[in-house]
Amino acid sequence: MEATIRIQSKTIVLPQTDIDTDQIIPARFLTTTTKEGLGDQLFADWRYEKNGALKPDCILNDPSVRQNSILVAGHNFGCGSSREHAPWALLDYGIRVVISTEIADIFRANSLKNGLVPVIVDADSHAWLLAHPGADVAIDLESTTLSFDDRQVEFPIDRFARYCLIHGTDQLGFLLDNNDAITAYEQRTP
Question: How many domains does the chain contain in total?
């Protein structure tokens, strides 16, 4: 996992509420155990016609947003089943941050474990971001702040997950990095 301290990008806006994990990555694409290629299936039912052609009215198919790595979504993002493929698909597409007023607990946990930063903001900030697609936004994990339009708002994030993101490690990597201290503790403890 790549160390992440600051992410700055223009936004992509999906204002729909209650976007569930089956919309993010439909169940028919869950046959893989690797992350590669899942970005092509991200929001597949929204992005593709039945014949496989791209839907021109889907913002995710607009070449001008392909380099944008911050997604602003409607309320209650990532609800539904607990599939880890959902954050994998977002990351493989190029999304590194999801912003909403509510992000489902299991989706948020899966995101943090895989390097996707879930950011929960207040209703006023969210409304402004939804109304301004393509806004320049910066996320700073050291200060846990989101900056946009001369505003700076704090967002909550689990301390351990934040540590892992900043240091580019996951839970297993953290344990392996501390193996000597763990072994020493186990030897001291009867």
Answer: 1
